[in-house]
Hints:
Blueprint (H helix, E strand, L loop, with lengths): L1 H11 L1 E9 L2 E6 L3 E6 L13 E7 L2 E7 H4 L12 E7 L2 E7 L1 E9 L3 E2 L4 E2 L2 E2 L3 E6 L4 E5 L7 H8 L2
Parallel strand pairs: 2-13, 5-7
Antiparallel strand pairs: 1-2, 1-8, 3-6, 4-5, 6-7, 9-12, 10-11, 12-13
Amino acid sequence: MREAAAHKDVGNELLQLVTFHIGDEEFGVEILKVQEIIRMMGITRVPKAPDFVEGVINLRGKVIPIIDLRKRFGMITQDHNKHTRIIVLEINAVIVGFVVDSVSEVLRIPANTVEPPPAIISGIESEYISGVGKLADRLLILLDMDRLLSRGEQGLLTGL
């Protein structure tokens, strides 16, 4: 009986996600990884940084590297607008900001509606994708932010 109750709890588990758009695609990240979401601000360029690193910002006295997810995913870049946001996350003890086209909502979805990722989704390498959430009217690509940057890239960001 205890096993059935435990299994039932897993089936009812809800994932709490922050959802955002990059182009026509909608993505989600675990809410517990998100420290804050801020409006676009002035970014200071860093010489010889990788192409996807926009630069750094000063956020309440902390210097935080900023990564453009469009560039990271090999998508066509676009100018920032009033909807552009920076999602500040902690990845393996490194605080990093990610530029996204817009932030949608905080969403709770049942864990059992998430399927493992197919080999390739919209040109984005599947190693970054933890799953695909099936919602009533759309699909939500769940990102594994811990795997978005290699250890070498994370080390590089801590040196900025």
